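To illustrate the input format used throughout this study, we show a single complete record. The first block contains the structure-token representation of the backbone; no residue identities are included at this stage. The design step must infer an amino acid for every position from geometry alone.
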């Protein structure tokens, strides 16, 4: 049986994603669990290792749930302070806090301009003429939900095209497997493989989605979303004629996000 959760007063989430791991997060986990044992707090404190929490500039990061507080730079040297001050006697560890519920601003260790955020700019397109476009950061956490929106949810209002198979009609099914999206299209009895994640040295890297562009024409009569890779250029297209809230949805949820 796992820990008796009826006795737990504090749950601590410890990030062990890439940036935190580079800052010895595993050492922090070990020292935290050790300090909790030594302080007699093992039974009423639950520790959970997580993947990336999206706060890389504050690595290594911890989150304590009983008062919704985020802690930065939680190295093995600061763990004992967290246990003795925060968990044992209820004092705050202000020097390492970077956000808690109720704050209007974060206090990160450093400011990083997010790669995921972009802005609109006018461009000349060889086919469409003058277009207002914005780039969506092409990581799998954008690519996968975009593909599902286009091919499984909003397909009735879109014209969908693939470079290899031409126009796609009807609702498709999209599933994820090991960094790839597989779009199963019953109307053509085909399955389209989209590489969303690949290391630079791999054979699949040139086929990985490297650019996602959202745009509309100058007269705002045509809207579009293009997915491209380094090997073939534009491999998937979604076009529509009326915004119906879709343009704003994609801008706010994919292009102008902070992380």
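Output of the design step:
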């Amino acid at each position: 049986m796992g820990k008796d959760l009826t006795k737990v007063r504090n749950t601590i989430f410890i990030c062990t994603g890439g940036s935190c791991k580079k800052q010895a997060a595993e050492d922090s986990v070990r020292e935290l669990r050790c300090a909790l044992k030594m302080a007699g707090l093992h039974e009423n404190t639950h520790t959970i290792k997580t993947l990336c929490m999206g706060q890389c500039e504050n690595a290594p990061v911890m989150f304590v749930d009983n008062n919704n507080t985020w802690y930065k730079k939680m190295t093995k040297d600061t763990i004992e302070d967290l246990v003795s001050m925060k968990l044992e006697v209820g004092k705050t560890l202000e020097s390492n806090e970077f956000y808690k519920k109720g704050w209007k601003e974060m206090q990160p260790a450093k400011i990083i301009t997010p790669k995921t955020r972009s802005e609109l700019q006018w461009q000349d397109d060889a086919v469409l003429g003058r277009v207002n476009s914005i780039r969506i950061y092409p990581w799998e956490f954008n690519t996968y939900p975009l593909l599902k929106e286009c091919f499984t949810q909003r397909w009735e209002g879109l014209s969908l095209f693939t470079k290899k198979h031409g126009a796609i009609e009807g609702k498709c099914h999209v599933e994820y497997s090991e960094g790839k999206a597989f779009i199963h299209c019953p109307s053509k009895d085909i399955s389209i493989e989209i590489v969303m994640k690949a290391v630079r040295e791999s054979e699949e890297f040139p086929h990985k989605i490297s650019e996602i562009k959202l745009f509309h024409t100058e007269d705002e009569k045509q809207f579009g979303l293009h997915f491209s890779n380094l090997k073939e250029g534009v491999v998937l297209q979604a076009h529509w004629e009326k915004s119906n809230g879709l343009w704003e949805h994609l801008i706010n949820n994919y292009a102008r996000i902070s992380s």
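Structural context for interpreting the output: The mean pLDDT is 89. The radius of gyration is 23 Å.
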